Amino acid sequence: QVQLVESGGGLVQAGGSLRLSCAASGSIFSINAMGWYRQAPGKQRELVAAITSGGRTNYADSVKGRFTISRDNAKNTVYLQMNSLKPEDTAIYYCNADVLANGGRYDNWGQGTQVTVSS
């Protein structure tokens, strides 16, 4: 069984920064893409940023230039550095990982971490 545990959310003023972390644990053979999604109240979950095992990144237009995704493959951990935060970034942020484990391929989600940006 694979678990994703997120940390780093919280309350911050507009213009501030936060760094989210997500560590994968369990009987992991390898991890392909990892990513961060978010869901604001009344809205659908949306992709924020993703990164392949080789380091290729992809960002939502709304966060380009402000957010940076990175990963440490040795630690099975993905990070999201969020700068110049805006009130519209307020949401629950979820970690996602495409994991090869126990002879199968699994799409794993974390429990979510709340990010609140005050104006």
What does it look like?
With 119 residues, this protein is mainly β. 0% of the residues lie in helices and 61% in strands. The protein contains no helices and eleven strands. It has strands at 3-7, 10-13, 18-25, 28-39, 46-51, 57-59, 67-72, 77-82, 91-101, 104-109, 113-118. Strands 2, 4, 5, 6, 9, 10 and 11 form a seven-stranded mixed β-sheet that branches. A four-stranded antiparallel β-sheet has the order 1-3-8-7, with no helix packed on it. The radius of gyration is 14 Å and the shape is elongated.
Write the layout of secondary structure elements.
Elements: E1 3-7, E2 10-13, E3 18-25, E4 28-39, E5 46-51, E6 57-59, E7 67-72, E8 77-82, E9 91-101, E10 104-109, E11 113-118
Parallel strand pairs: 2-11
Antiparallel strand pairs: 1-3, 3-8, 4-5, 4-9, 5-6, 7-8, 9-10, 9-11
Task: Produce a short descriptive summary.
This protein is mostly beta strands and 119 residues long. It contains no helices and eleven strands.
